[in-house]
From TrEMBL:
Domain Methyltransferase type: 57-152
KW Transit peptide (keyword) present: no
GO BP term (any one): methylation
This protein's name: Methyltransferase family protein
One Pfam family matching this protein: Methyltransf_11
Coiled coil feature spans: none
Length: 265
């Protein structure tokens, strides 16, 4: 597997997504600029006290979540592979008169670009599937955390990624712990399914065992692993909104989201 080719393909696709996402309803840029947070119930309940703390946001896209944490008083640094996303994040930071820092790099190379150690490392919703191996990712997280620091992730459940969503109805096609890369090419993006842009993407599936083991092997202590039947985002086919405003499967057969909170020993 030519990982350089895969990462460059993904970077090119994410560069194209920036303008589409920034103009679309999914990211609701106007409401964000007017003060609406883009953070969801899971992360807000997990990371209650961020004021005055340093926070590293991995795979931040164009920084709306990063800047939402910044509005809550955290001193934030966001990292993303897309140079177009980082440019927009920097412009938003300046426009909103916030003090976040943004760095363009492959998340696996973060320690080569960011030397600071942080109170909190955060990542969320559709991030680890872009990585072929979680061990270097977890090692980097440990390197960037202060002793006693907290790592928190909230992510779509690996069972959800076993399906091919380019066909209707979705077909269970990929392995839960599949090591081979998954390549997909399709029209549109989750942020605008009606867009004519062509998404070309390489991804990898990671089971919960791999997630937890990579973090513990890197020296982190797992405080909890939680699985949830509902997602803040309506990105999978056939979901319905529940009373809490989250989206869930009508049959409830498997979780859609999981959370991990860990601390640096």
């Amino acid at each position: 597997m030519d990982l350089k080719k895969a990462f460059n393909t993904n970077r090119e696709t994410w560069n194209k997504k920036v303008a589409v996402h920034a103009a679309g309803e999914f990211y609701n840029m106007q409401a964000f600029k007017e003060g609406k947070t883009t953070l969801n119930v899971f992360e807000l309940e997990a990371l209650v006290e961020v004021k005055g703390k340093s926070l590293l946001h991995l795979q931040c896209h164009f920084g709306q979540d990063t800047l939402s944490w910044s509005r809550m008083g955290a001193k934030c640094t966001g990292v993303d592979i897309s140079d177009e996303a980082i440019k927009l994040a920097q412009n938003l930071n300046k426009e909103l008169e916030l003090d976040a820092n943004f760095v363009c790099c492959n998340v696996l190379d973060t320690s080569s670009f960011v030397s600071e150690k942080f109170d909190i490392v955060f990542t969320s919703y559709g991030t680890i599937g872009w990585l072929p191996d979680l061990r270097p990712w977890a090692k980097m997280i440990s390197e960037r955390l202060k002793p006693g620091g907290v790592f928190y992730m909230v992510e779509f459940h690996p069972i959800a990624w076993m399906f091919d969503y380019t066909v209707s109805p979705p077909e269970m096609k990929y392995g839960y712990q599949q090591k081979e890369a998954i390549y997909e090419e399709y029209e549109g993006t989750y942020g605008d399914t009606g867009s004519k842009m062509i998404s070309k993407e390489y991804g990898w599936n990671h089971g919960l065992g791999e997630v937890i083991s990579s973090l513990t092997e890197a020296g982190l202590q797992i405080e909890y692993l939680r699985e949830h039947d509902a997602s803040p985002y309506d990105i999978f086919p056939g979901l319905v909104k529940n009373k809490a405003g989250l989206y869930e499967l009508t049959n409830g057969l498997y979780p859609l989201v999981f959370e991990v909170l860990a601390t640096k020993r």
